[in-house]
Design brief:
Two copies of one chain form a homodimer. Chain A is α+β, with helices and mostly antiparallel strands. Helices cover about 35% and strands about 20% of the residues of chain A. Chain A has two domains: about 160 residues, Jelly Rolls (Sandwich); about 80 residues, Arc Repressor Mutant, subunit A, CATH 1.10.10. In chain A, the strands form three sheets. Chain A has a five-stranded antiparallel sheet. In chain A, strands 3-8-5-6 form a four-stranded antiparallel sheet. The interface between A and B is large, with 44 and 44 residues. The structure holds a DNA duplex (30 and 30 nucleotides).
DNA sequence: CGGTTAGTTGAGAAAGCTCAACAGATGTGG
DNA sequence: CCACATCTGTTGAGCTTTCTCAACTAACCG
């Protein structure tokens, strides 16, 4: 359902090498192949991803930072906690979830990422990722090697500021999630979640009124701090109240204002 | 109880001007006076605040970015949501809480900051702060005008990286808070909170086993997503179980391992 | 020293969880 | 391409945790 067709050019670059410390992993875990990126300068998501006012020189430089993309199949990880941090990523097609895990097995989904949204910012701090990023469907990401990005940011004031803004935005996003988890009822959480998603889809030119949830009820619950049964009950309640028309994963928002009033 | 004596030199700099859009505020809200900072190069918190490997030239430049400090009295705000973002701050003495507020009055404390910790990172994103920063006791902060800091970071690779690390660290901190709010019981939350605080005090050379909570039970509850009564009950439970010896705001951790096992 | 605020404790209510049954959807091998 | 197994989602009933309301005590402040 999402934008651009995945870049599936098969000119695999040999440069890939070992992306990850390879821990126990369901299936064979090959060195992830990279593919040449189509350029930022012509990308339809540029307005979502990048500052609006880059000069053509800056765009050229940017193209030389974002040289490759990578395909991640549904259920596979882009990176996992404890992997060495190398690059920042931007979702190009598809969608991801990020999950932090406690030793005792407790899991918390900390976010869902759709095209144009960043991944990997958690890794800068310690040089090691602190969460897993898992594809919810077959997806593509742009790869921005962080060292090169940093160099670029020392040259470009605009790009420097953009990266600070991006990270600050992540901080603010997480704060409002804390508010959600700390102060809202199950009903309010789900409403806020749907409204947030609707807004993000709309900002990317998709319908905000009707969309397809790629994540399961369990994943939604794990994000919103409640059990899947409760998520399901709340969907049913919204349907009864004529706010949302859920059809499995297909969601139609009927009464936006009503949902906001919950 | 915290480190350094506050810099209370009264050579108020006239440069202060209007720091804030002044919304309804309990008392008189004057333009906050700034005081000359004692230098980063000689600050005992430097190891906590700044990258360890700055050259003497970089230290000099840093001193010229962090020219001023500001005193904030107990209960007063350093900045509030919707204030224009100007500067990043580092707590020098005392402590703060950051609070995000929903229109309907719901509040969530998103963090407590002790000496050496940053404040204001939320403002970069939109140029406007998204939370209130309120002093829990009479406190002092170092002021880092963000424009100057950005310039400095374009010149100093180390400083640039440090700021990225700082922001990434905030992202990781908030993720683990989401885990706390999303998956833990009231008992586990309070235990995790005490252990976190103990670690942070210890890292600053204070006792991790005995410390003074500057925040009320209500503020703790608002941070941990529970009511003050529940916080109180959990303290009592920890006391009964011989894990913690709470004496009002004075906390002594008796059984660190036990607390970690909760 | 009296008034106010902060903290503790108890009892009953409510939200959300657990367990369980079942229905649809999805996928797989014969 | 069907039949069966598996996974995902829905719904119900009873239980647990936390909240709410209330009373009371201790600490703090002017």
């Amino acid at each position: 359902m999402y934008a651009e067709p995945a870049c599936d050019s098969s000119l695999s670059t040999p440069s890939a090498g070992s992306w990850h410390v390879v821990p126990p992993q369901p299936a064979v875990r090959e060195a992830a192949p990279r593919y040449p990126a189509t350029r930022c300068s012509t990308c339809s998501l540029r307005a979502v991803c990048m500052p609006p006012d880059l000069t053509s020189t800056e765009l050229e430089q940017l193209d030389s930072v974002v040289l490759t993309t990578r395909n991640v199949h549904r259920g596979e990880t882009l990176f996992r906690a404890h992997d060495a941090f190398q690059s920042l990523y931007a979702v190009r097609t598809g969608s991801f979830k990020t999950v932090v895990m406690h030793r005792d097995g407790r899991e918390q989904v900390t976010g869902f990422q759709i095209p144009g949204e960043p991944l990997g910012l958690d890794g800068i701090c310690s040089g090691t990722h602190s969460c897993d990023a898992i594809a919810l469907e077959d997806s593509t990401v742009c790869i921005m090697p962080f060292g090169q990005l940093e160099s670029f940011c020392r040259e470009s004031r605009r790009m420097q500021h953009h990266l600070y803004q991006l990270m600050s935005g992540e901080i603010v996003r997480e704060s409002s999630l804390m508010m959600l988890l700390g102060t809202m009822t199950a009903e309010q959480r789900l409403a806020a979640f749907l409204l947030d998603l609707a807004g993000r889809f709309q900002a990317r030119g998709y319908s905000g009124a009707q969309f397809n949830l790629k994540m399961s009820r369990e994943e939604i619950g794990c994000f919103l701090g409640m059990k899947l049964e409760t998520v399901s009950r709340m969907f049913s309640r919204f349907q009864r109240e004529g706010l949302v028309e859920p059809n499995g994963k297909q969601i139609r928002i009927v009464d936006l204002e009503g949902l906001a009033r919950v």
